[in-house]
Amino acid sequence: MGCVWFVGAGPGDPDLITVKGRGLIEQAGAILFAGSLVDAAAARYAPAGCRVQDSKSMTLEQIADWLIAAAGECETVVRLQTGDPGLYGALIEMTRPLDAAGIPWRVVPGVTSAMAAAAAAGESLTLPEVTQTVILTRVAGRTPMPDGEGLEALAAHHSTLCIYLSATLMPEVQRALSAAGWAPDAPILVVQKASWPGRELIVRGRLDDIDQRCREAGIGAQAMIIASPALGAGGWAELTPSKLYDPAFGHRFRRAVTAESDT
Ligand code: SAH
User: Fold this and answer.
1) What residue owns the CA closest to ligand 1's atom 6?
2) Mean pLDDT of the 32-58 span
3) Res. 263 pLDDT band, cuts 50 70 90
4) Ligand 1 pocket at CB < 6 A
5) Whose Cα sits closest to atom 4 in ligand 1?
6) Closest residue CA from atom 13 of ligand 1
7) Residues 199-208: pLDDT tens digits?
8) What is the distance between the alpha carbons of residues 79 and 136, in angstroms, rounded to a whole number?
9) What average pLDDT does range 173-202 have in this prediction?
């Protein structure tokens, strides 16, 4: 009996899959991929004779049945998913039927789209003494948010917010951040199709005009919203330097010039 590998394909650029994920595709007997985003990785690395199918029109139950049937025939079965399989990827809904059928499965992490969006824009999601916390979240769509996880409550931390699945719900993002005390001129970044060769679209704006800018740019699905007090720091007049590179700060690989050794 085969093993089902849930492989993170990364955010879109086929070069952003991990070496381990690519190796599994190269030896796969069957690949079930999730939508056009990861099509390219499957097409580029799948061996001749490998069964490759898009799961776009399948229900979760059909997906599980397909994986179970494939594991009966092939040693290596790959379920290829966008970004990282552990984020908004229905991973557990698929692994439970595999467990029930006694089929082994493993997960290979992938580059999630929040990281690809920050990279595309040349931004750091953390900055010393500005924000040291990143929240990965979404606003409620058909999936409701659990108690205490509304965007307004999360935004009250004034840390970095990477907001998935919400590009078409920008007015709600604006409302929640304003209600949490973010200034009208707080910088907001939206990246559509981050890392897709030739298709990436970066929109920068302020809390009060980002919806309009996104509409003007034609932003639709596959877009990441990043709200963060660290955005644009590359252009600030002054910056608190990271202690990691401070000569007075010792760490595992370098001895401090002074006695300070706080981590
Ligand atoms: N597991 C995926 C997320 C799937 S949910 C991951 O780790 O990235 C789908 C959402 O992810 C989209 O609504 C969008 O917000 C985001 N997304 C996926 N690919 C993206 C990309 N290339 N650029 C920007 N956002 C992307």
Assistant:
1) 83
2) 84
3) very low
4) 11-12, 82-84, 87-89, 112-113, 116-117, 164-165, 191-196, 222-224
5) 88
6) 165
7) 999 999 999 9
8) 23
9) 97
Task: Give the pLDDT confidence score for residue 37 in this predicted structure.
Answer: 61
Q: Provide the 3-class DSSP secondary structure of residue 126.
A: coil
Q: Strand 51-54's sheet: what is its strand order?
A: 51-54, 30-33, 76-81, 3-8, 105-108
Query: For the domain 3-108, what is the CATH code?
Result: 3.40.1010.10
Residue 25 phi, psi dihedral angles, 5° rounding: -60, -40
- Rounded distance from Cα 214 to ligand 1 centre (Å): 17
162 CB burial (10 A radius; 0-12, 13-18, 19+): buried
Nearest 5°: the CA angle 131, 136, 140 is 125
Residue the block writes with tokens 């991990």: 18
Could you give the CA distance from residue 58 to residue 183 in angstroms, rounded to a whole number? 43
3-108 and 113-233 have identical folds? no
* Domain spans in the chain, listed from the N-terminal domain onward: 3-108, 113-233
Arch. (CATH architecture) of 113-233: 2-Layer Sandwich (3.30)
Q: What is the DSSP string of 132-198?
A: --EEEEE--SSSPPPTT--HHHHHTT-SEEEEES-GGGHHHHHHHHHHTT--TT-EEEEEESTT-TT
- For ligand 1, the distance from its centroid to the CA atom of residue 36, given in whole angstroms, is 12
Contact 155, 132 (CB under 8 A): no
The per-residue pLDDT for range 81-132, each reduced to its tens digit, is 999 999 999 999 999 999 999 999 999 999 999 999 999 999 999 999 999 9
Q: Label residue 121 exposed, middle or buried (CB < 10 Å: 0-12, 13-18, 19+).
A: buried
Structural contact between residues 262 and 251, judged by C-beta atoms closer than 8 angstroms: no
**102 close to 67: Cβ distance less than 8 angstroms:** no
Q: What is the mean pLDDT of the chain?
A: 92
